[in-house]
Amino acid sequence: MDELWSRTDEKRKNRITEDALARLSDDLIRVGEKKLGELGLPEDLLDAVVDAQRIKSAPARNRQLRRVRGLLRDADFGGIQARLSALLEHGSVNATTVDAETNRRETHWTLRLLGEGMTGLDAFLLEFPNADRTHLWQLVRNVGKATHERRVKAELKLRTALRSFLR
Question: Which of 45, 88, 120, 128 could covalently link to 71 via disulfide, CB atoms 3.0 to 4.6 Å apart?
Answer without folding.
Answer: 45
